[in-house]
Each structure stands twice: as C-alpha cells, then as structure tokens.
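Closing statement on the zinc ion sub-project.
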Amino acid sequence: MNCPYCRNADSRVVDSRVADDGVSIRRRRQCTACSRRFTTTETASLSVLKQSGAVEPFSRNKVINGVRKACQGRPVTDHDLAVLAQEVEEAVRTSGAAEIPAHQVGLAILEPLSRLDEVAYLRFASVYHNFQSLTDFESAIGRLRDRRSNVPQGTQRPLTAD
Ligand SMILES: [Zn+2]
C-alpha cells in the first residue's frame, strides 16, 4: 500500500485492530518518508484445499452458489444467503488456519442452513453426506425434530456430530 500523500511504498504499522466485521484488520500506518498517517483495511487470506489437491481462495460467493440450489423454491432471500455466507466465513476463520479443507467449509454450512430453512438443509445434507437411503433422511429429520422439541430455543446443539 503506497502512501496516499506522497506515493512512498514504505510504511510502518502504528496500530492494528480487528474491524467490526470480525474478519478484516484495520491498520493505522505511518509513512516512512513524509510521516503522515493513513489507515488500511486488510483481510487475512484464507485458502480452501479441495479434494483434488487444488488450493483456491475462500469465496463467500462460492458458498452462496453451493447453497442456492438447495434453496430453490424455498423462502430464502439473497440477503439470507449473504448472511449465511458471512457466518460460514466467520466459523471457518475461528480455526485460525490459513488453509482449510473444503470438507470443513461444507460442515460450517450445515448448521446455519438448518436454522435458515429445514428443507434446504435436508437437500444440502443429502448431497453433502451422500445420503443413500430413506433411513438417512429419516435420521436427519429425526435430529431436526429432536432439536425442535427437546432443546429450548437459543441453546440448540449443533446437528453435525462429525
Ligand atoms: Zn508519505
């Protein structure tokens, strides 16, 4: 980041704090040439390791595209999907790792999706967990029902034990 005043390429960090979104870092910098101060916002890089071995940058849009199909015909808005993608990103970033397996992104999608729309959750989980039979659906539905009836609102346990 060049100094916005004199274009000098070198600066030192005088203060760093996590921004309100919890994901990016705001840095107060001082130019080493003209000594003026400016602020930058940086996002720590987060990579996804795919099963093929390829590594690509984490993308909220990819999360949204992956979930959108499961939400077809359901009362789920683009805003809901954007919020979900943000939750997923925050969840995977809490691990602190710079590179996470794609599997972990899928797991992080399941919980917020189950709260957003149970039908979309079942569709997504059936593909993600490769449901083979009605029994797989029945047990997933059973877990959703258990959670609804046994656990008070607000203290819901995660559905995904794996
Ligand atoms: Zn400068």
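The CA atoms of residues 2 and 9 lie 4 Å apart. With this model delivered, the sub-project is considered complete and its resources will be redirected to Aim 3.
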